């Protein structure tokens, strides 16, 4: 086979899964239930966040938290403080693509 096949999470349990982590790109899948979120941190690369289901609640830098429904694609530049949560009843599922692949881990806020 020429292609490499990866499997995404197929349930509603909280998950932050690194799907592809190579020298070109980082591709992650996250599933968050109501009230769950990520630690506040800074983006360590340009990133593209796609809402696959649910509603993403995200605060960037000192902005108020904004909600983005299923079908939204956010582009967030490097070194932006991010506060990512699911404030809604429906399960939130997002993918995050970091390009180029970051050289260092994200730093906590």
Any key phrases for this structure?
0% helix, 4-stranded antiparallel β-sheet, 9 strands, 45% strand, 109 residues, globular, 5-stranded antiparallel β-sheet, mainly beta, Jelly Rolls
Task: Indicate the topology.
Blueprint: E1 15-21, E2 26-32, E3 41-42, E4 47-53, E5 55-60, E6 66-69, E7 73-76, E8 81-85, E9 92-98
Short description:
The strands form two sheets. The protein has a five-stranded antiparallel beta sheet with strand order 1-2-9-4-7, with no helix packed on it. It is globular.
Write up what this structure looks like:
The protein has no helices and nine strands. The radius of gyration is 14 Å and the shape is globular. The model has no long low-confidence stretch (mean pLDDT 96). The chain has strands at residues 15-21, 26-32, 41-42, 47-53, 55-60, 66-69, 73-76, 81-85, 92-98. It is mostly beta strands and 109 residues long. It has one domain (20-98): Sandwich (Jelly Rolls). Helices cover 0% and strands 45% of the residues. The strands form two sheets. Strands 1-2-9-4-7 form a five-stranded antiparallel sheet, with no helix packed on it. Strand 1 (15-21) and strand 2 (26-32) form a beta hairpin.
Overall pLDDT: 96
The number of helical elements comes to: 0
Return the CATH class. Mainly Beta
CATH architecture: Sandwich
The description of the largest β-sheet is: 5 strands, antiparallel
Strand order of the largest sheet: 1-2-9-4-7
| Beta-strand content bin | 35-45%
* Structural domain tally: 1
């Amino acid at each position: 086979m020429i292609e490499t096949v990866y499997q995404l999470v197929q349930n509603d349990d909280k998950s932050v899964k690194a799907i592809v982590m190579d020298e070109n790109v980082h591709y992650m899948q996250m599933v968050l239930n109501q009230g769950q979120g990520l630690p506040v941190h800074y983006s360590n690369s340009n990133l593209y966040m796609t809402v696959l289901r649910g509603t993403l609640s995200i605060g960037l830098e000192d902005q108020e938290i904004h909600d983005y429904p299923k079908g939204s694609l956010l582009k967030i530049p490097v070194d932006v403080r991010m506060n990512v949560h699911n404030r809604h009843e429906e399960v939130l599922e997002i993918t995050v693509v970091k390009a180029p692949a970051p050289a260092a881990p994200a730093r906590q806020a």
